[in-house]
């Protein structure tokens, strides 16, 4: 793996950093307080190409590699994870899933709208009784010949109140277990799609998380993704890539908190010297930067493996697990370094600490990542090339 970023990759990182600092940062505290979705900011992200970064330009995407996407996710997450989760779901779970497994008609019909930000997508897998245990889908898709009728309830749906297209995972043949599950492209304007309650959350408060109900929604057969019964594998494959995006988000949150803590520790004087010169604070910063650099290597390597067309399931699970746990530890310490100031909203680190928590939960909890790793270990899938 080449650790030197190309000029193009560095330019993407800088563009994302400029956008985050100049457009997202000014209103981020207020949007978090009032749970206001960053509508105008997301529209601008679409115009700048952040919503379909890896998608082929023939479908309106940026045609970039996963490393560029990770760099942009990181910079935007340093400032605003409510915006970066929209970016992550749209890029990794929705656009990448359609581009990789969809038909040409599906790609032509939906990707240009999604990559431009005209539409935002949602990935609808979780249910009230099927979170980690994703095979226990209760949402049904009844085969009616030329169409399906989808009925059921989905929970914790990111972009739930704002998205125009849902990727819905539903059970078609219950007797076949996970092999009877399918994935469908469902337009939210169709009859029977009902947007339920918006969640009042601990973190990423400006992102739009809803319950969704499907009441006999008529979905044409051409909107199924892949062969009959491919839906669970589709969800697993898409989530594996999605985990690289969330790992980058966690890395960004940790880095954002570290940058604030390091700057503060050099300005704040206590007992006659900047607090960084007190070992209790200096050592915290040392541990923070070490863990962030270790997380960065895992995240970039997972992205690189994906770009090489190699298997990245274990690398993505490790990256998400380590980066999200690092984000939690680093943000708690960043609040501590700031003392009383860290406890108030104006200094940003308390929000980063609240935002960090979800990275240990969504797109597979830390415990699920350990399941993914231990099952691969059991199968002796340990070959992870380093070159
Ligand atoms: N790629 C391809 N196939 C895969 C796969 C992968 N990465 N992982 C599993 N599969 C296949 C298996 O091979 C198996 O197929 P066969 O029987 O044909 O061999 C099938 O899927 C079932 O696998 P398991 O028996 O291992 O299934 P399981 O029930 O034990 O669960 C699990 C596996 C890893 C725990 C899985 O359920 C899982 O990942 N759960 C977490 C779900 C999750 O991440 N939810 C996040 C919600 S989405 C979200 O958060 C988005 C958002 O809005 C931000």
Round the Cα radius of gyration to an integer and report it.
21 Å
Counted by DSSP, the helix tally is: 11
Strand elements, count: 10
Mean pLDDT: 96
**Structural classification:** alpha+beta
Fraction in helix: 40-55%
Poorly predicted segments: none
Described by the principal axes of the CA atoms, the overall outline is: globular
Query: Strand count, sense and closure of the main sheet?
Result: 4 strands, mixed
- If strands are numbered along the chain, what order do they take across the biggest sheet? 1-4-5-8
How is this structure best described in words?
The chain is of the alpha+beta class and 387 residues long. It is 51% helix and 15% strand. The protein is built from 11 helices and 10 strands. It has helices spanning 7-24, 28-34, 39-48, 66-77, 81-101, 104-116, 231-267, 279-307, 313-338, 349-359, 366-378, and strands at 121-124, 140-143, 147-158, 165-171, 181-187, 193-198, 209-220, 224-225, 269-270, 273-274. The strands form 3 sheets. A 4-stranded mixed sheet has the order 1-4-5-8. Helix 7 (231-267) packs antiparallel against helix 10 (349-359), helix 9 (313-338) packs antiparallel against helix 10 (349-359) and helix 9 (313-338) packs antiparallel against helix 11. The longest helix has 37 residues, at 231-267. It is globular. It starts with 6 loop residues before the first helix and ends in a 9-residue tail after the last helix. The mean pLDDT is 96. The structure holds acetoacetyl-coenzyme A. Acetoacetyl-coenzyme A (CAA) binds next to helix 7 and helix 11.
